[in-house]
Automatic annotation (TrEMBL):
The keyword Membrane applies. It is found in: Membrane. PANTHER family: SULFATE TRANSPORTER. One of its GO terms (biological process) is transmembrane transport. Pfam families: Sulfate_transp. Its main location: membrane. This is SLC26A/SulP transporter domain-containing protein. One of its GO terms (cellular component) is membrane. It comes from the Bacteria. The lineage of its organism: Bacteria, Pseudomonadati, Bacteroidota, Sphingobacteriia, Sphingobacteriales. The chain crosses the membrane at residues 26-45, 51-68, 73-90, 96-116, 123-143, 177-199, 206-225, 266-288, 348-377, 397-428.
Length: 534
């Protein structure tokens, strides 16, 4: 009876938690849907693909990837960082159907990478770089969405690159928008921002998500401005494909041309997409885990398998390659999402909106959606984050700032790579300064020097140890103590043994204490691993 009661109580607890989370996940899914919709369309347009392909990718990213993923807050879909690759690949391969084969193969490669534990590379991204990337995405959202908030939509919605296809850059586009703004768009965006800020402060009203209120206000004001000199144009609105029948809907899908599967160019494109999409996904997962209020850790290998599955399904249905995307995921976090149900529901809303309410969706002005992203960007690049990183010291603050500047002026992957280089520089600098501690004892006319090595001595410590050993004065007794060391790198061991062999020429006597001739990397035994997994 007790065991039956305990099972019943556990089920009740799970139902309660699910119900409690759904109160957060359903409103959050609507916010993510509203943000994802124009992004899917904009990225498809910029990639030279059919608009419907962007929607397919968003739907698959929501329903398929989120279901298979171990991340609770990540939202997947078409990524702005892949637009240049996709656009070039479609032209290079000679057709969209051939390109879809590469997307399917890229998914298969990602699944293999996940099964081979390739996701562990995500554990090696420095915290300062991830924080810098988040702040950079926030600033990018602010800078890129300002023209849309002003009613100037010459650049596609969701672009993140510094140099735009319309021969403008991030800053010149803002300058141009200030001289060609739309009064209606400004009114809509300003009211939207005010609602986003103040609506959540009223507890009774906050049951309805503020972004949904913003969209309603945007649609109403669009109708109000119709027929006036300030009326919004079609390009300033969401432009979802209108489907009038089931046959029209099914006709929008495109099948891959698998007759080209042995084409070498297809495999090169597939490999490129797999690597870039995997890196962007791992960076996004690491970033979203950082802003997760519950501080959960997502399984990265499982994420690669989920992303690979999603890309295979997307490619088979005629969609674009997808990744975990920081913009949508951070909107999910800021809207209060708690579990993967938010991402799954957002995919369902994308599908239902396409099938049943395309006319209403096409009345949503981009200005109000830009306002949502402006507020999201501010939360990612909040001033408190800069203060926090500054107080952590220069070794954290410099890579943080460099990453921000590099991402703003290049793109996500290049910016992170530059930030990583600076982070590695400070890592090497720290290792050179802090590989061990030593104590000098004077006895008569001689000096006794004890060098006590740290618990882990890597090859990064080799240069610093060589410097100290070379500075030891003649006629000194040196004790190199490895009693605390669980591992000493072979290069460091060679340095120590060579020094002992040659030190007698300077009258230096070297004694090695608790230093083995060979060390193996410590591993967790199977029992410990089983306990951790359980």
């Amino acid at each position: 009876m007790q065991s039956g009661n305990s099972i019943f109580s556990r089920l009740e607890v799970k139902k309660y938690i699910l119900k409690k989370n759904l109160k957060r996940d359903l409103p959050s899914s609507i916010v993510v849907f509203l943000v994802a919709l124009p992004l899917c369309l904009g990225i498809a347009l910029a990639s030279g693909a059919p608009l419907f392909a962007g929607l397919i990718t968003g739907i698959v990213g929501g329903i398929v990837v989120a279901s298979a993923s171990g991340s609770q807050l990540s939202v997947s879909g078409p990524a702005a960082g892949l637009t240049a690759i996709v656009l070039g690949a479609i032209g290079q391969l000679g057709g969209y159907q051939i390109f879809l084969v590469a997307v399917v193969l890229a998914g298969a490669i990602q699944i293999v990478l996940g099964l081979l534990k390739g996701g562990t590379i995500g554990n090696y991204f420095p915290s300062s770089v991830i924080e810098g990337m988040l702040a950079a995405i926030g600033l990018t959202l602010i800078l890129k969405q300002l023209p849309h908030a002003l009613g100037v939509d010459s650049d596609f919605f969701g672009d993140e690159s510094f140099f735009q296809k319309d021969n403008e850059n991030t800053f010149s586009a803002i300058g141009g928008a200030l001289s060609h703004f739309s009064l209606a768009a400004i009114v809509i965006s300003v009211l939207s921002i005010l609602v986003l800020i103040f609506w959540p402060k009223f507890k009774k009203l906050s049951i309805v998500p503020a972004p949904l209120v913003v969209v309603v206000i945007g649609v109403v004001l669009t109708i109000v401005f119709q027929g006036s000199n300030y009326a919004l144009q079609a390009k300033q609105m969401v432009e979802i494909p209108v489907v009038n029948s089931w046959s029209e809907f099914t006709g929008l899908f495109t099948a891959p041309d698998f007759s080209q599967i042995l084409n070498g160019k297809v495999w090169v494109v597939a490999g490129t997409i797999a690597v870039v999409a995997s890196l962007e996904t791992l960076l996004s997962i690491e970033a979203i885990d950082k802003i997760d209020p519950i501080k959960r850790v997502s399984p990265t290998n499982r994420e690669l398998v989920a992303q690979g599955t999603g890309n295979m399904v997307s490619g088979l249905l005629g969609g674009l390659p997808l990744t975990s995307v920081i913009v949508r995921s951070s909107a999910n976090v800021n809207a209060g999402g708690r579990t993967k149900m938010s991402a799954i529901f957002h995919g369902v809303w994308l599908l239902l909106s396409l099938l049943f309410i395309p006319g209403i969706i096409n009345m949503i002005p981009l200005a109000c959606l830009a306002a949502i992203l402006l507020v999201t960007g501010y939360k990612l690049a909040r001033i408190e984050l800069f203060k926090h990183m500054y107080h952590k010291g220069w070794d954290q603050f410099v890579p943080f700032v460099i990453t921000i500047v590099a991402v703003l002026l290049t793109d996500l992957l290049k910016g992170v790579a530059i930030g990583m280089l600076f982070s590695i520089f400070y890592l090497l600098r720290t290792n050179m300064r802090n590989p061990y501690f030593y104590k000098i004892q004077e006895e008569g006319n001689k000096k006794n020097l004890r060098i006590k090595l740290a618990e882990e001595v890597s090859f990064l410590n080799k240069a610093a140890i060589q410097v100290v050993l070379n500075k030891i004065p003649k006629e000194t007794n040196v004790i190199i103590d490895g009693s605390n060391s669980r591992y000493i790198d072979p290069d460091v061991l060679e340095t120590i043994f060579n020094y002992k062999h040659n030190a007698y020429t300077k009258g230096i006597i070297v004694i090695l204490e608790n230093i083995k001739e060979q060390y193996t990397v410590p591993k967790l035994n199977n029992k410990v691993i089983e306990e951790i997994n359980s």
